[in-house]
Design brief:
By secondary structure, this protein is of the alpha/beta class. 36% of the residues lie in helices and 16% in strands. It contains nine helices and nine strands. Strands 3, 4, 7, 8 and 9 form a five-stranded mixed β-sheet that branches. Helix 3 crosses helix 4 and helix 4 crosses helix 7. The chain is globular and about 50 Å long.
Amino acid sequence: MKKKRMLDRILDILYPPACMFCKRPLSPSDDEPYCRDCMAHLPFTKNYGCFDAFGGASYLIAPFFYEGGVKRALHDLKFKSKFENAKVLALFLAGYLENNPEAKRADVVVPVPLSKKSYIKRGFNQSALLARTVCERLGLMLGEDALIKVRETKRQSSLRNFEARANNVLGAFACTSDLSGKTVLLIDDIYTTGMTVYNCAQALSDAGASKVIAATVANAHKEIGYSAHNYKGSRLVFGKERAD
């Protein structure tokens, strides 16, 4: 870790840094933006974060379950502009993706887009922030504008049943690039019913992508089970030709 500048030390005294997960003040020995106790109790997923999704026909990669400190950190990122949280969470995600040879060789990384209205209101796209760090860590190309949102939708979290969420994002995304034969790594913050990821992946596939690997920081849909396949050689999330 680099030595802190004098100004940083003074600011730490005036405004003690707090753990991004539990909000308690960090100790001088903590060299990360989270405390050791939280690190030991984060809701990590197993099986290299590989889940069955959509009835076992496809797969999701997520390092965390959406609960506890991870839920708090993502909420603070999205609604309190805690940008440092994006970098840290993305590094955890990249660490899981490094175990997948296909993910490491993806041709392009595409974040789930916001509508223009939502982007203006929030001022940033949290999925794009995550995608940038993933690209830096894995040495991959970022296609930040490859996918766009073509119409306004309600916040998925405001809708309480699967049918409403499915209809809310149906046909809401379009691809602006020719992705013929490419493997795309699709990045989002949270997986709930999966309808946003599904519709984005369909748009990417329609643009020619041969494979779309979906990866999120957290999985909120705990009812879906871990993939029975070996992660390192597993089938990918969306492909025109899926292996057995």
